Amino acid sequence: MQYPEYRPRRLRKNELMRRLVRETQLSVDDLIYPLFVIEGTKVKKPIASMPGNFQLSIDYLVEEVKQTRDLGIPAVLLFGIPDRKDEMATGAFVKQGIIQKAIRAIKKSVPDILVVTDVCLCEYTSHGHCGMLEGDEVDNDATIEVLAETALSHADAGADMVAPSAMMDGQVCAIREVLDEKGFEQIPIMAYAAKYASAFYGPFRDAAESAPQFGDRKSYQMDPANGDEAIREVTLDVGEGADIIMVKPALPYLDIIGRTREEFDLPVAAYSVSGEFSMIKAAANMGWLDERQAMMEATTAIKRAGADIIITYFARDIAGIIG
User: Fold this and answer.
1) CA-to-CA distance for 122 and 116, rounded, in angstroms?
2) Nearest to 236 by CA among 168, 188, 170
3) Which domains are assigned to the chain?
């Protein structure tokens, strides 16, 4: 095809024509909305680095979930902030933990939405790392036992899906085994399979109060320079029983999303993380870009790269536009 016989602009000349030939379509069915839950009642604490997001007590959380359901979004992803932390991450797995109580409240009041739970320990440890410590190092094998116990407590409370994010070797296998042993073989696992040690998590750590008190997480989260390693990580999680495989963050790792989509036939999730959200919000607030256009363009790029599921703090805004 050559000019002048072929003119690509013919199919771009107006919005109706562009809609007719559009290759990538966002749907509310693609979206998961992350939420932060905290102890107390009538608490709606703004997160300064994530405008429009809040730490919510369970009563307000339930109302937020109802509104999310009413927009047609099929799932929420819960992160808990306990009132007390310790070295053993006790609040992560106790029956009356903040997440466990939140799950039960949502399933009672809003049964027609999927409740997905983050399975990690950083919000619950006094040191802020994602696992049990042996000296100043995270003990992988001790940690996966606690992660499995945490996932089981979520399933027992009524979670529809668990999402282990600690990046411990063998975490998916440990969780799958304990869920199956305890009669929760129908609970799927959405594995944070390729989770990078990213600068884009900063606002989330404010929201979840989960910044490490010393060191960093580079010994267990992935080096941003590595792509082949991501495929090895995903391969391991698939072999251990993951039902959905996730890449995190999203926008800086579109190539990894694309490679994952090409090489695996499981559903692929991408987490558009707090820093991606906050950059757009901050630039829009300064008048440097159009928030709605940037939000839709960025999210469409994630879908175009190959994501079947997009976890995004823009989920409700997007649903309001396309729902």
Assistant:
1) 17
2) 170
3) 25-247 (3.20.20.70)
Q: Quick: pLDDT tens for 158-176.
A: 999 999 999 999 999 999 9
Residues 6+ apart with CB under 8 A from 256: 194, 227, 230, 247
Active site residue 85: no
When computed from its CA atoms, the radius of gyration of the chain, rounded to whole angstroms, is 20
Give 7's DSSP letter.
Answer: -
Question: Amino acid letter at 214?
Answer: F
Question: Out of 85, 101, 195, 303, which one is annotated catalytic?
Answer: 195
Q: Does the global pTM surpass 0.85?
A: yes
Name the 3-class secondary structure at 25. coil
d(Cα 257, Cα 253) in Å, to the nearest integer?
A: 6
Q: Tell me the per-residue pLDDT of 295-311, one tens digit each, with 9 for 90 and over.
A: 999 999 999 999 999 99
Q: Give CA–CA dist 156/159, Å, rounded.
A: 7
* 95 annotated active-site: no
Task: Single out the residue of 263, 254, 270 nearest to residue 232, CA to CA.
Answer: 263
User: Which one is catalytic: 85, 248, 281, 303?
Assistant: 248
pLDDT digits over 55-73, tens only?
Answer: 999 999 999 999 999 999 9
Instruction: Check residue 214 and give its pLDDT.
Output: 85
